[in-house]
Amino acid sequence: AQTVTQSQPEMSVQEAETVTLSCTYDTSESDYYLFWYKQPPSRQMILVIRQEAYKQQNATENRFSVNFQKAAKSFSLKISDSQLGDAAMYFCAYRLRNRDDKIIFGKGTRLHILP
Amino acid sequence: EPEVTQTPSHQVTQMGQEVILRCVPISNHLYFYWYRQILGQKVEFLVSFYNNEISEKSEIFDDQFSVERPDGSNFTLKIRSTKLEDSAMYFCASTSVSRSSTDTQYFGPGTRLTVL
After folding, report:
1. CA spacing 20 to 30 A to A42: which of A21, A54, B92, B113?
2. Chain A residue with minimal CA distance to B109?
3. In B, which residues are within 8 Å of A103 by CB distance?
């Protein structure tokens, strides 16, 4: 069975600094997606970034980038120039590359931004 | 930009009552999902739905739960006799089947269910 592990329940970072959130996963499959979702206090799930497992190049979206290490099954999220609006719960997630497959989420990391 | 919508945003019900949570997926999407998040816990898969039938369901999705696409636009989750432990945020999601799609599941804003 696939699992997603986030070992940091909470993290804090100074505004404008860089922070890295860790995620590891376990799967025997080779073709899958990995995601980071952001959940602000409104509790809506917002897709931050996604990575296709077959792509070696790390995904980037503006201030957000990932470090995808397929062999190590590691998928960390780096947030550069942290802003107050980045404060939220961040979930790492996995999904097989089938059309109707479910997303498996980690337990989340709560990120605090210190002014 | 098209989005998944859910109603109501907050539902309060008495234990033992039936509730129906409603979702309107993105119009050209054909795969639909329900997820649940108990407060302070991770998001958990409940059920996936395609071509008017359940594709997969988790062990959480017992006989008290059912899903339906009654009219080609709505996608509903029914809980027949609610229990205290059903209190949670329920998220609907949908995804496209286009070969050019990104296979991203788009989430609705959620319905907060409170069972008293």
Report:
1. A21
2. A44
3. 33, 35, 43, 45, 93, 105
Chain A residues whose beta carbon lies within 8 Å of the beta carbon of residue B56: 100-102
Q: Per the CB < 8 Å rule, is A45 touching B42?
A: no
Helix, coil or strand: residue B91? strand
Q: How far is CA B83 from CA A74, B14, B44, B89, B110, in A?
A: 38, 9, 17, 14, 19
Shortest Cα distance, chain A CAs vs residue B74, angstroms:
18
The confidence score (pLDDT) of residue B100 equals 52
A54 vs A56: CA distance, rounded Å: 6
Residue A100 has pLDDT above 70, yes or no: no
pLDDT per residue, tens digit, chain B (116 aa), is 778 999 999 999 999 999 999 999 998 888 999 999 998 888 999 999 988 999 999 999 999 999 999 887 899 999 999 999 999 999 999 988 665 555 688 899 999 999 99
Q: Give the ranges where chain A is alpha helix by DSSP (H).
A: none
d(CA B9, CA B113): 9
Strand residues in chain B grouped as ranges (E): 5-7, 10-13, 19-24, 31-37, 44-50, 53-57, 65-68, 75-79, 88-95, 106-107, 111-115
Among A91, A100, A104, the residue with its CB nearest the CB of B48 is A100
